[in-house]
Amino acid sequence: MIGGTIGTISGVRIAGAGREFLIDEEPVDILIESGVIADIAPTGALRPHGEVLDAGGAWAVPGLWDNHVHTVQWALAEGRVALVGAASAVDAAERMRDVAPLPDGRRVGAGFRDALWKDAPSLEVIDRATGDVPTYLINADVHSTWLNSAALRREGFEALDGVLREEDAFEISRRLNAVDPSHADAAVRRAGERAAARGVTGLVDFDMAWNADAWHRRAGAGFAAHRVEFAVYPYDLERAIAEGLRTGESYGSDLVTVGPLKVISDGSLGTRTAACSHHYSGDTGDYGILTVSPTDLIDLLTTATGAGLGVAVHAIGDRAVTAALDAFTATGAFGSIEHSQLVRHADLVRFARLGVAASVQPQHALDDRDLVATHWAEQTSIGYPLAALRDAGVELRFGSDAPVSALDPWQAISAAVDRTDDDREPWHPEQRLTIDQALAASTRTSLRPGDPADIAICGSDPLTTRGQALRRMPIVATLLAGRVTYVG
After folding, report:
1. pTM for this one?
2. Is 73 in contact with 191 (CB distance < 8 Å)?
3. Tens of pLDDT, residues 32-44
4. Residues 420, 382, 444, 265: is their CA dihedral positive or negative?
5. Residues 29 and 47: beta-carbon distance below 8 Å
6. What's 248's DSSP letter?
7. Are 412 and 200 in contact (CB under 8 A)?
8. CB-CB contact of 344 with 383 (8 Å)
9. Residues 245-292: pLDDT tens digits?
């Protein structure tokens, strides 16, 4: 059935946006024509047409979106050593000791979180474990990379402790991700299939590369797992303008759309470089860094806006969020602030007044709650706001920042609704959202006639499921414009 086009979904319950038009919660039939929802009526009231998908009373929600993905890096993670849970620098380095090099001669691990380690990464520790094989350990937040001496020599960098941060770390990631296109595209295809199995019908690609050619090539080769909006970065801005790219326009395929200019304006909490109003705990001189000056940020947003490009400004610390909002104010730019993990109270209404969306990753709040207690104890702004932003009238868009967190919208939805993913009490429960609010932040369409037939059919009722069961939401089938991309 995968790849087949559905004309009728029979016996399905509407759980997402659109159910407000139904008189009860009984199953309905959805008729689909030319990739669009044509009609909805009680089961049996409409004459079925085309191929019929019997939902058996399962629950339908609009197709899910992940609004922040580093696609190739996420796809290549399947071939990299998972360092999640490494308890120390020694532990992380030892996990790489006997790893077979990739075909390019490198060993690559990813996902370590060193911010709470009792020891620190060093060349001595990683060289002792890994010897002369070039070895790279990528921080979970991707804002720092720990290399052994052989890797530093190979890449032409120097670092006394072996750790490269911010732009140097991004350059290493770009080099590691620059694999043969056929290899990358195969990995992206497999990753797309995994995403479809979680009800995903669209994502925003923030790979640090020239994504236009890559997605044109993939679409031409038949990639059809989900919709894609791809970003460009400042170093490619002139090229994007010269080629006439404009946000929202299709690019070689109905499934591929030009996205925003992505600007990384500060660091991260995990690398202790997010730009904050108050110092990091235990270091009175560390306020993080603005990696783009306010003047340069205004210049970039002015250029992008004049060329018809929206913007997505990475801003984690409250000082960076304020600078980003200042730039939106000065330029009239449209788009989003990505992450928004620490927001001044006064800035909440500025988001809404400017029409700037908050593109957030709810799972990060749970992954980082111990880091916040340790490193942001001095901060007075709101940490990981969800309800506060929504109550101020701000549009929320959920994502994963994959591979930082798993590309699974149900984890983001659960994190927003439950505010815990273990046996601890909810973290800052005042920032919880309702399930309807979380679904709205994870979708782009509704289940109403006239909307695209991008649909995820769930094995449990999302409106009543909570906790780990919500995170593991079983997906019966996923449809993209009426075409089956996954069936369980």
Report:
1. 0.96
2. no
3. 999 999 999 999 9
4. negative
5. no
6. T
7. no
8. no
9. 999 999 999 999 999 999 999 999 999 999 999 999 989 999 999 999
Among the listed residues 355, 438, 377, 367, the one whose alpha carbon sits nearest the alpha carbon of residue 401: 367
* DSSP tag of 266: B
Over range 441-470, report the average pLDDT. 97
CA dihedral sign of residues 112, 116, 117, 123: positive
Report helix, strand or coil for 246.
coil
Are the beta carbons of 311 and 247 closer than 8 angstroms?
no
pLDDT one-digit tens code per residue, 173-231: 999 999 999 999 999 999 999 999 999 999 999 999 999 999 999 999 999 999 999 99
Quickly count: other Cβ atoms within 10 Å of residue 39's Cβ.
14
What are the b/e assignments for 47-61, b being 16+ CB within 10 Å?
eeeeeebebeebbbb
* Pairing of the two strands 51-54 and 81-82: unpaired
- pLDDT of 323 > 90? The answer is yes
482 phi/psi in degrees, rounded to 5: 85, -5
Residues whose CB falls within 8 Å of the CB of residue 380, separated by 6 or more in sequence, listed in order: 277, 278
- Block residue for tokens 């979680």: 198
Helix (H) or strand (E) holding 38, with range, is: strand 36-42
Nearest to 456 by CA among 415, 408, 420, 395: 408
Reported confidence tier of residue 7, pLDDT bands at 50, 70, 90: very high
Amino acid identity for residue 357 in this structure: A
**Which of 445, 437, 389, 395 minimizes the C-alpha distance to 416?**
437
Query: Which tokens is 265 given?
Result: 């304006």
